[in-house]
Amino acid sequence: MLEIKNQKLTVSIDSHGAELTHVVNNKTGYEYIWNNVAWPKHAPILFPAIGRSTDDEYLINGKNYTMQQHGFVSDYDFEVICHRDTELILSFKGNEETLKSYPFAFELRVSFILNINQLMVNFEVENLSDNILSYSLGFHPAFNVEKEFEKNRLSIKPDRTQLEKFEIVKNPFPYRSGGVRKLTVSGSSFDLDRQIFKEGLVIMTDKVNHVILQGRSYVVKMDLSDFPYLCLWTKENEDLPFLCLEPFFGLPDMINEKQELAKKLGNDRLKVGEIKKYQCKLTFE
């Protein structure tokens, strides 16, 4: 486990998957990140896919390639590029094994930088192949919330009178139906309710720049301006005190429609040799 620290926060990252595992308030001892075997992950990185592909496959020029749910980088060890008191940079490059399911050369760099009570999580994708790189990129952090779920409040910016989400079909994995549905809440600031997640994960259709999650003992603020979608998730039908706030650049597949990677809705794309950077800024109070 790798650690960065300042006077306000102590942060732990697992080089396996470059996964954020702990964010602790040094003064109060409060742990912001979920750590429980009931859902044994903490903050996986999703690349080069988000969600599950139809039949666990997708297409490149009509040829089938297998792809597991949420891609594969969370299964690999990342190389440590830089490790200072308040900064950590990790890197993963595609290899012979990943080429079998994703026939592109690439490098994914993830950096964690502490500044007072803020943690900047930066992602950098470089296309090292000789073709256009089409991919999804997601960050899946789970935050501890008050045990009484309804005692937690979520605020989404910019404000909207009615929030909308992509309609999700569970079969048993989440796919998009192609439809859009209204959230069963009023406005864009509301108390949490497990009924929100009765149909599974919630992916907002409108652009979200900031989200605030707060309870009696904590506040987490997220700036996800670099990402087009926000996904909310907790384990449906289970009374577990966590909520995932997930910046997405990409979307789950349409149900029963095998996707051509180059045309997949929500994906980002890089030209040969191009690099693109994304940032998720977290503020902890």
UniProtKB/TrEMBL annotation:
One of its GO terms (biological process) is carbohydrate metabolic process. GO terms for molecular function: carbohydrate binding; isomerase activity. It comes from Lactococcus lactis subsp. lactis (Streptococcus lactis). InterPro entries: Aldose_1/G6P_1-epimerase, Gal_mutarotase_sf_dom, GH-type_carb-bd, LacX. This is Protein LacX, chromosomal. The lineage of its organism: Bacteria, Bacillati, Bacillota, Bacilli, Lactobacillales. It comes from the Bacteria.
